[in-house]
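ok here's Armadillo repeat-containing protein 8:
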Amino acid sequence: VKKNIVASGGFRLIVQSMKRQSIERKSRVSDSNVQYCGLACVNNLLDSQDSTVTLAGTRLVLETIDDEKENRASVADWGIETLQKLSNSCVGIKRAIIDCGGVKLILGLMKEHARNVFIDFGGLWLVQILSNDDEAVQKTIAMYDGGIHAIVASMMYHACNQTQQQRGLMCLCNVLDSQDTTVPHTVVRSVLDCVIGAEGPNANTASWGIVTLRKLHDAHTGIKRFIINCAGAEVLMGLYSSDLDVQSMTMKCLQNLLDGSDAAVEIIIACIGFEQIVASMKRHCNDQEVQQCGLACLEKLLDCHDATVAQDSMRFLLDMIAQESGHNSLGMWGLHTLCKLCRIRDSIKQVIIDCAGVQVLMDLMNEHSNDPNVQSMAMTCLQLLVDSSSQV
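and the structure:
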């Protein structure tokens, strides 16, 4: 029966009927029945012992999806759903989809119909399962123009859906496993392009971008330098500086990037500077996570091997403390931060001393002689500095 159906053109007739019904949808009952029975027929015909039959049939399904000119969105919905069901039914069919160029077709549909929920969800599911442990598919995604961006965009458009985020991240990690050296740069650049896309950035996309970069960093530590080189920290730090969630996540991302990387320290100083980190900490002085992550970033920057960079950074902090001393909460925040830095390591204490930090503290004590909080915090800083140096 199978051979007779295939030989007489029945396979094409079945697939075309399924496609036509998905477009016309004249009757919900009859359409559902055509799809159900048609899919069962296609499954049985493709699940053949003859690999040439499976390949030919799969190629026909893909061509039927791709050759539609007038109702592409409807057919794309139907095609993605059909490929999902076929992929679930038989390992051989999954292999045939790959061998017949199905991955490129799926990525093309995702590009063409961005923001279509059914295509985004079904397409990403297919790309993920097809790219698992398959280097050829991973290379196909990497080389397909806009393929990586289609994956990243489908994640961003559905940022609140955790399943979509997990699938997208697995897809990106699969592609990062390929030997193509351009992939990490393309992945990071695509995330940043989505964040600052044509419609302009917003707090939600900024948050999604930071979380995605952090997850990619955790999954592939080698991607760190690409995040830095693509100005990822600079871009994200500049977005929504007043949004606490964005700044908190950004500061955590910066801390991860700075950890164990002298190159990261140099690039972040050049791109962002000490100033933006201090400004963010000052703006969100009551948020514990921003303060902890910010302090860890300051420690890395102040412990830089370049003495000029460290001193310039400390002078900025000391100047800010002196200027904000009249605003009690901000002035006290600055003194608290200075005390915490004093406790970290002696090299940072020496930078404070070299930048006339002792004089700044004494000036504050003179200026606010009646403020017990300023007196106590400044005295604590002086004690820590005196304990470590005879120069004081």
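+1. The CA atoms of residues 261 and 289 lie 22 Å apart.
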